[in-house]
Amino acid sequence: ATPKTPIIKALNMFVDHHISALPICDADGRVINIYAKFDVINLAAEKTYNDLDITIEQALQHKTQESWFEGVVTCKKNDTLEVVIEKIVKAEVHRLIVVDDEQRMFGVVSLSDILNYLILKPFGDFVSKKS
Questions:
Q1: How many helical (H) and strand (E) elements, i.e. helices and strands, does the chain have?
Q2: Which domains does the chain have, with CATH numbers?
Q3: Mode of pairing for the β-strands spanning 74-76 and 95-99
C-alpha cells in the first residue's frame, strides 16, 4: 500500500489476502510505515473516524504518542532463519519486511510463516515420504 491508499482498500486487502498488516511504501518502494488490523480496530474503538474513504496517511495521523507501534523492522532476503527469528524476538514484532540492498520491499515474513515452516513443513515432508 501507499500513504494515499484508502482505508476501505486496506480493509479489503486484509480480508482478500488473509493478512494482518500492510507495509506502506513510498514512491521508490521503500517501506516507511506499517498499517495493521490493530490500527483499524483501535481507531474504530476510539471513534476517531467514520469515513472509510480517508487515506492510510490520514488514519495514521490519528495515532497518539502513547499508541503501541511495533515499528518497521527489516531483514534481507538472504538472511538465515536464525537471523530472522533473532530479529523478531529482539524487536518484539510480529513480522519483518524483507528488503533488498536499496531498502526496497521484497516481501514480508511473519511469525505465522515461521511457525508454518517449522511445524507444518516437516509434517508435510513426513506424510509425503510415507505415502
A1: 6, 5
A2: 1-71 (3.10.580.10), 73-131 (3.10.580.10)
A3: parallel
Query: Which residue reads 511495533 in cell numbers?
Result: 70
Q: Is 23 helix (H, G, I), strand (E, B) or coil?
A: strand
Angle at 19 between CA 94 and CA 104, to 5 degrees: 70
Please name the residues in contact with 106: beta carbons below 8 A apart, sequence gap of 6 or more. 77, 98, 99, 100
Pairing of strands 95-99, 31-36: unpaired
Cell matching residue 39:
490500527
Look at residue 130 and tell me whether its pLDDT is greater than 50.
no
Question: Model-level pTM?
Answer: 0.74
